[in-house]
Amino acid sequence: MAYQKRDLRQELTDSIIEALEKGVPPWRQNWQTDKCLQMPYNPTTGKAYRGGNVIGLMLASMKNQFPDPRWLTYKQAESNGWQVRRGERGTQVEFWKPIDREEETSLGIFDDEKDGDKNQPKFIHRVYTVFNASQIDGIAELAPKVKNEWEAIQSAESIIKNSGVPIVHSNQGRAFYRKSTDTIYMPLKTAFPTAGDYYGVALHELAHASGAVHRLNRETLTASVTFGNATYAREELRAELASVFLAAERGISYNLEENAAYIGGWLDALRKDKNEIFRAARDAHKAADFLLALELNKSLEEAIAVANGRPQLETSEPSAVSAVETAVDEAARSPYIPRGIRPAISASGSAGMEW
Question: Which of 69, 104, 137 is the last residue of a domain?
Fold first, then answer.
């Protein structure tokens, strides 16, 4: 029988589809409201994994009930005097290394006639196996991430203020981003069970706003014209992931709302394209990077450059690695209904639609 190369992207997509069909997105399962979510990271470098690798590692943690966010290769563990336990199975991550023209020539992989534009960057693709700290003997116990609620709230307020996107509060009981006015509409803060819930939703809407034409010009936002269509669902996935990444980065703990309609749209997108979750995670990281750069008082142009300048690519074993992808006028983005508030339902059955 001929050897068949594993399609790791398809395997990951199939696993995410299986989790979504059960109504349990892996990035939600990893959230504990009594603790801060910690993104998967490499303890030997201190850097977080990025892109589709984040989702894959979260999924592995969910399946294996790993409470530890630390992941590293066998070699990295061994070099620190730690030992992966016999019989443990690793998890694969993607690593992409950019190569310059000289290196391409020396490796014999550059062809002037076939490769077209000589200025286009090229990459070497590698797959590494990493192990969770829970599978390793000798590694120090994880120091719990201490959540300071006041610091988290202050940071969230800073992200919102420095974004430049106005927020209008009212007692209408729903949250959405309106493209035509570049404005976020939110319920009153008192409508939310906790401060974390308010800021989690605000960050979700802010993630939508990051995709505006004059910011990151994200196609899933700019091309979305109808609530519930395929592009809309893809944009919702990006906003959800971006809000998770932002909240984890700043220690904001909140309850992610279940929404069966969005999960159905995500399933459709993933079934059609094994690369979609990687693109979504890439775009979500760009949105988070952009908003965090603005928080640090970067100009709009500088923040866009920061977002487009990631992910960081390394030349050795992976630490913070991510796949590099080749990659409504007036539509209300992601209507959010705080618990206990019942919005009017339109004839189409969509809650809180704005046009």
Answer: 137
